[in-house]
Amino acid sequence: MGLENWSPEGALTTRVEELLNWGRANSLWPMPFGVACCAIEMMGTLSSRYDLSRFGAEAIRFSPRQSDLMIVSGRISLKMLPVLQKIWEQMPEPKWCISMGACASCGGIFDTYAMIQGIDRFVPVDVYIPGCPPRPESLIDAVIKIQELVKLERLDSHA
Amino acid sequence: MIPHGGTEGSVDQETAAIDFIQARFPTAVLAVAESSGQKWIEVARDQIVPVLTALRDEQGWDMLMDLTAVDYLGMETPERFQMVYQLYSLARNSYFRVKCWVPESDPTVDTLTHVWKAAPWAEREVWDMYGIRFNGNNDLRRILTPFSYEGHPLRKDYPLQGRGERNQFPRYEK
User: Fold this and answer.
1) Smallest Cα–Cα separation from A100: which of A66, A65, A139, A61?
2) Fewer CB in a 10 Å sphere around the end CB: N or C, chain B?
3) Rounded distance, CA B24 to CA B109, Å?
4) What is the ipTM of this complex?
5) What is the band of B2 on the pLDDT scale with cuts at 50, 70, 90?
């Protein structure tokens, strides 16, 4: 890798936090909570043209127990929110959440009895993506912002 | 040319169905009307199951396409609610509509559970959205809203933004 010239002793020093965060940030395992048209853009982002694996987040897990990034893409109805919360509970710490698109972030055009007016009222959201639906570039930008958040993690953050 | 929703002869078939009901159930027919080239019939609420059963068994209207309701709150109608039954004939590729009025004071209709297997879930939806009960449907659970939901949101006097139910959830913090 060329590192041997840079470090003749064959050793590097870093902090454990830095090493863990570096690994986590570049190996996010998303839980795709895709419930509407935003999910189609999410699939497009994951596929070959936009290729989210360039940012280490291509290992989509449909089990919340194996993931650390929930991407809520679509409108969340009254009936779906308990499901969303159960899945969020089942994800192990540390975990992050992207609210993708207008509906997940604020209800979008659906200001009705049946629609949650923003999932951040009931689950913590780290990054919001505007758009209806957002373009894949926006989702990639959100993943990069999540990576920046991951790099701020401390060992005692979830003690 | 085959227009959307039926063959060229569909008006004739609607007329034949109406004539059949008028001959067979003379006291059941409340009104016959036509709009946009489609005829329909309004029948008495207590006769709706015999009429639809006869249409299926004797006139070949063998498929229940849809079963739904309309809320005419504040309009000059005989009753507040109207049930709408949309029938289809597979053999003739033709549609026919039967309606009946349902009063607000007694929002009940006899079930079609034993006539069409398509009916029970459609009746659950009408119960969920309009609060019309179906006598004889033993499975009138809500189907679209959560089981814990209260009220019938497609009634015109139900507030569009609800009664606060969309805010009643636990909040998870980071």
Assistant:
1) A139
2) N
3) 21
4) 0.79
5) very low
